[in-house]
Amino acid sequence: MHSPDAPAPPPRHILTPSSLNRLVRDLLEDALPLVWIEGELSNVARPASGHLYFTLKDANAQVRCAMFRPKTGWLRFRPVDGMHVLVRARVGLYEPRGEFQLVAEHMEPAGEGALQREFEQLKARLDAEGLFDPARKRPLPAFAKRIGVITSATGAAVRDVLSVMSRRWPLAEVEVLPVPVQGREAPPAIVSMLRRASASGRYDVLLLTRGGGSLEDLWAFNDEQVARAVHASAVPVVSAVGHEVDFSIADFVADLRAPTPSAAAELLVPDAQAIRRHLQQLRQRMATLQQRRLHALIQRTDHLLARLQAQRPQTRLLRDRERLAHLRHRLAVAMREAMRDRERRLERTHARLLARHPRQRLSLYAQQLAQQERRLRQAIFQILERRRASLHQTARALHAISPLATLDRGYAILFDDQGHVIRSASSVAVGARVRAKVADGDMALRREED
Asked: Are 239 and 257 in contact (CB under 8 A)?
C-alpha cells in the first residue's frame, strides 16, 4: 500500500512495434535527406514486378537497398553483383521487419560518376579564372597558310581532316603533329606539343582533335594542364574532340569548338569552289565598274571638249550661222504653210460658191423634174395597165353573158319587122316575116302555119 501523501508515478508511454518502427522511420527520413553513397553491389535481385533489390557494401559494412519502378526503367546499364556504383538514395526503415534500408532514386557506375564530378569541378574552377571568357577568344585566319593538326597519326580523325582540307583548299599546308590521344601519357604529350607548336611561329592556327569514345577515352582532353596549354597558346586553337554530343574542357578553353574533326576542317579552310565563284563574281563586277567608269570619263571628256569649242569665236559664229539658217528654214516652212492654208481656204470658199450657183440649182431642179416626169410616166403607165387589165376582165365577163356568144353555140335571135326581139311565138302572125340573126349573119324568115 502506498501512503496517501506519496507522489503518483509518471504515466508510462507504451509503444507497439509498428508505432516504434514508424517513429524511427520518420526520424531517419527527417534527419537524413537524399544522400550519395558509393559501394559494391551484391545480392542483386529483380523480380517480375520490375523493382530492384540489392545490398550495397564496402570492406566493413553493408546496407540493404531497394529501387522501385519507374526509377529502374531509367537505368542506362544492367546492375550485377560486384559492380562498383554510385547511388543517390533516401534513408528509411522497412516497417514490417524493422530493417534499416535505402530507397535508391538514381544509380550510375562509380567510375563515370567520379570522372563527371571531377569534370564539373575543374570546369567550374577554370571558368571562375576566366579561361572560358568569350572576350579572349581570337578569330581564325580567313586563309591559313600553315595548319598544325595535333592528334593521333593513325586515327580516323586525321584522315577525315586531311581529306576535307585537301578537297576544299589544297593551297593550305597541313602538318600532322602526332601525339597519343588517350592514356596516362597523352596529357603531357599534348601539352608539350602545344607549347612547341606555339613557340615555333610556323603555324597560323592549331587544331586539337580526336575521334569519339567514352568519357574515359576522352579524358586526356579534360586535363587541367592541357586546358592551360590551350589557353597559353600564341596562335588560335580549334578543338574538335569526339562527336557532336561530346564536350571537353579543351572545347571550352579553345578559341573555337567544332562538333567533329571534319567540321573543324571545314571551319579552318575556305571552300575553293566558293572562292572561285566569288572571284568570278568580283571579276564581272570589276569589269562592269571599269566599263561604267570609262564611259563616264568619255562623256566628261566630250562635255569638256564641247565647252572648250563653245568658247571659241569661230565656233560661236558657226553656231549663230547655223541658227540663222535654221530660222530661215523655219520662216520658209512657215510661209509655205501659210500659203497652203490660204489656198485651202480659198478652195473651200470656191467650192461653197459653186455649190450655191443658180446653174447648180437649175441642174438640180432639172434632175428633179426629170425624175418626177419618169415617176409620172411610170404611174400613168401603171394606171393604164391596171385599167386595161380591168377592161379586159370586164370584156371577158360581158362576152361570157353576150348573146353573140350564145349564137356561136348554134342559137339564133329572131327580130320582127320593127327590130324587136321576138320572145313568144304567139306574137308573130302566120305569114309574117321575121329576121333571124345567127353567128355569121342574118336570114329572112316567114312564119307558116303550124
From this structure: yes
As a whole number of angstroms, the distance between CA 147 and CA 329 comes to 82
Q: Assign residue 309 a region: left if phi > 0, alpha if psi is -120 to 50, beta otherwise?
A: alpha
Which 8-state DSSP code applies to residue 270? -
Q: Nearest-CA neighbor of 197 among 256, 156, 238, 164?
A: 238
CA distance 159 to 174: 12
C-alpha cell at 113: 560518376
CA angle 362, 368, 370 (to 5 degrees): 100
The number of angstroms, rounded, from the C-alpha of 408 to the middle of its chain's C-alpha atoms is 114
According to DSSP, the β-strands at 35-45 and 84-94 are antiparallel
Using one digit for the tens of pLDDT, what is the confidence trace for 391-427? 888 888 887 777 777 777 777 888 887 778 877 777 7
In this prediction, the residues of the chain whose per-residue pLDDT falls under 70 are 1-10, 15, 20-21, 24-26, 28-32, 111-114, 309-313, 357, 360, 450
Asked if 126 and 252 touch (Cβ cutoff 8 Å), the reply is yes
Q: Distances in Å between the alpha carbon of 326 and those of 161, 307, 312, 323, 333?
A: 81, 22, 21, 5, 10
Residue of 160, 257, 151 lying closest to 210 (CA atoms): 151
Look at residue 399 in the predicted model and tell me its pLDDT: 74
- Residue ranges and CATH numbers for the domains of the chain are 17-115 (2.40.50.140), 131-270 (3.40.50.10550), 407-446 (no CATH)
Cβ of 426: how many Cβ atoms within 10 Å?
Answer: 7
Could you tell me the pTM of the whole model? 0.47
Residue whose entry in the numeric block shows the C-alpha cell 602526332:
178
